[in-house]
């Protein structure tokens, strides 16, 4: 699983519930190309065909897929183990991958893979993932999963895009809190891969640049163990946060119940 140093870093990109890899690729294409141009990106489809209506029907062509199924409280999961096995096989055969990117269900699943790998539960022969881009992700809620995946802070460089109107806003903040020194980019939209303004674009571009520099051995000195927050260019306290309208304070939620009633649709992702 060795890779030549002069090749691009590789990202595995996992789509949202009842969509597809090609749809996530379209969603990401709204970002400035310079953000991810230095990476090779793969967009596989979920293991299972969509078991019901997709929010993107009539907007983006089928087929649609899902990674696993879940109950209304997001406490019980069907086919999750089969999904994890499928992804481990994919990662092992198609990798190595340097990082993960996910939207919604894909981001939630990515966070689980990172936590499980950190605890030695899976992908023991695969190099440790270096980074994670989470868009509208959340934590699993079943205690038996949480006790392993989120046992310790996950020491993978991570950026979390969180929408002010997203029905998963609080769960997204809770997922970010499980990572060491996360960067949070806030945007005013809902449950979507957001369009980024100049400030957020620059924040994300600089973040990916540090990932590449770290990989090539040209990175600046590593940050201290404490988190930092940028507000008007001044270093402050806990978590780094940027808004698509302004750089702002990022507050992480410490509790809360997952709202299973969707108030925003994934179709926002293809709208202007």
UniProtKB/TrEMBL annotation:
Residues 261-272 have a biased composition (Basic and acidic residues). Residues 250-260 have a biased composition (Polar residues). It is an enzyme of class 1 (oxidoreductase). The keyword Oxidoreductase applies. Its EC number is 1.5.1.3. Residues 7-199 form the Serine hydrolase domain. Keywords: Oxidoreductase. This is Putative dihydrofolate reductase. It comes from Rosa chinensis (China rose). The lineage of its organism: Eukaryota, Viridiplantae, Streptophyta, Embryophyta, Tracheophyta.
């Amino acid at each position: 699983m060795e890779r030549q140093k002069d090749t691009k870093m590789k990202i595995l990109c996992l789509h949202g519930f009842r969509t597809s890899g090609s749809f996530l690729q379209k969603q990401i294409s709204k970002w400035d190309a310079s953000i991810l141009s230095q990476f090779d990106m793969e967009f596989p489809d979920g293991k299972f065909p969509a078991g019901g209506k997709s929010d993107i029907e009539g907007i983006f062509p089928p087929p649609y897929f899902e990674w696993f199924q879940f109950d209304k409280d997001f406490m019980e999961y069907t086919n999750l183990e089969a999904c994890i096995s499928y992804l481990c096989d994919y990662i092992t055969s198609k990798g190595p991958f340097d990082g993960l990117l996910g939207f919604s269900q894909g981001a939630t699943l990515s966070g689980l893979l990172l936590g499980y790998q950190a605890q030695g539960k899976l992908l023991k022969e695969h190099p440790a993932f270096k980074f994670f881009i989470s868009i509208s992700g959340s934590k699993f809620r079943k205690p038996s999963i949480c006790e392993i995946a989120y046992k310790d802070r996950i020491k993978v460089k991570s950026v979390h895009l969180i929408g002010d109107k997203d029905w998963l806003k609080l769960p997204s903040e809770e997922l970010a809190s499980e990572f060491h020194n996360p960067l949070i980019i806030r945007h005013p939209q809902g449950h979507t891969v957001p369009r980024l303004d100049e400030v957020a674009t620059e924040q994300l571009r600089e973040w990916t640049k540090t990932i590449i520099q770290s990989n090539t051995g040209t990175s600046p000195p590593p940050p201290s163990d404490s988190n930092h927050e940028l507000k008007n260019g001044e270093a402050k306290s806990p978590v780094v946060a940027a808004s698509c309208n302004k750089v702002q304070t990022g507050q992480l939620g410490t509790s809360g119940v997952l709202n299973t009633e969707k108030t925003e649709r994934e179709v926002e992702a293809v709208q202007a």
